């Protein structure tokens, strides 16, 4: 077992990768970064939103990686943490929503601004992630049924599209981070579709001859 595979199979290592981005904002705040301190709630709002998007894109990338690299032990190790990464994306989205409320000065302003398309897209994304997180456990699979559960969790792709729009439309200047996060995901999904389409093609007919 290689070092990378061993690390990716370690719960401590994976949880550290998930938690550390949430702790990182403490550094610019405590170090007195003037840009951050000018509007710390806005900084934290954007930061946690982007981390949620990264985790959402990451969990959606795991299945394509497994299909594209079926013999890869690293891809196999990564796929062990699909539920953990997906639920973590929800919790970062929850923190992002909390800072959105702080930035909007509470519920009244938030509800008024909900008519804005980017904010409505963000709330819809959060609602989808809430449903997916609540049904991510084995008991939910048994209760809903495997096929219906799988169809329900395909809403994660809609959540990713809405999250990309939410992040892109929320700022006056297009955040290039949206491309860094979602273009690789789109490329992986496209590659997976191509590979699966090739596998589903019927093989060439074998000409058979009878005995003369």
Determine the fraction of residues in helical runs and give it as a percent range. over 70%
Output the structural class: mainly alpha
Strand content: under 5%
**Alpha-carbon Rg, integer:** 21 Å
Order of helices and strands: HHHHHHHHHHHHH
Number of helices: 13
State the major sheet.
none
Mind explaining what this structure looks like?
With 212 residues, the chain is mainly alpha-helical. The chain contains 13 helices and no strands. The chain has helices spanning 3-8, 11-23, 26-30, 34-38, 40-68, 73-79, 82-103, 107-113, 117-134, 138-144, 146-153, 155-169, 177-200. The longest helix has 29 residues, at 40-68. The model has no long low-confidence stretch (mean pLDDT 90).
Summarize the model shown.
With 212 residues, the chain is mostly helical. It contains 13 helices and no strands. The chain has helices at 3-8, 11-23, 26-30, 34-38, 40-68, 73-79, 82-103, 107-113, 117-134, 138-144, 146-153, 155-169, 177-200.
Write the layout of secondary structure elements.
Blueprint: H1 3-8, H2 11-23, H3 26-30, H4 34-38, H5 40-68, H6 73-79, H7 82-103, H8 107-113, H9 117-134, H10 138-144, H11 146-153, H12 155-169, H13 177-200
Helix pairs in contact: 5-6, 5-7, 5-12, 5-13, 7-9, 9-12, 10-11
Search tags:
212 residues, mainly alpha
């Amino acid at each position: 077992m290689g070092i990378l595979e061993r690390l990716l199979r370690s719960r401590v290592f994976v949880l550290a990768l998930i938690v550390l981005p949430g702790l990182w904002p403490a550094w610019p705040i405590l170090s007195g970064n003037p840009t951050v301190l000018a509007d710390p709630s806005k900084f934290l709002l954007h930061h946690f939103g982007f981390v949620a998007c990264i985790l959402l894109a990451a969990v959606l990338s795991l299945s394509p990686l497994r299909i594209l690299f079926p013999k890869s032990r690293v891809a196999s190790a990564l796929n062990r943490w699909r539920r953990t990464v997906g639920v973590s994306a929800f919790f970062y989205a929850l923190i992002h929503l909390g800072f959105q409320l702080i930035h909007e000065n509470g519920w009244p302003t938030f509800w008024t601004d909900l008519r804005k398309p980017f904010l409505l897209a963000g709330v819809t994304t959060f609602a989808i992630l809430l449903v997916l997180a609540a049904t991510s456990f084995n008991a939910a699979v048994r209760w809903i049924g495997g096929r219906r559960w799988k169809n329900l969790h395909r809403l994660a792709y809609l959540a990713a599209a809405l999250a990309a729009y939410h992040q892109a439309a929320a700022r006056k200047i297009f955040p290039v981070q949206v491309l860094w996060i979602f273009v690789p995901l789109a490329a992986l999904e496209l590659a997976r579709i191509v590979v699966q389409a090739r596998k589903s093609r019927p093989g060439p007919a074998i000409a058979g001859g009878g005995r003369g």
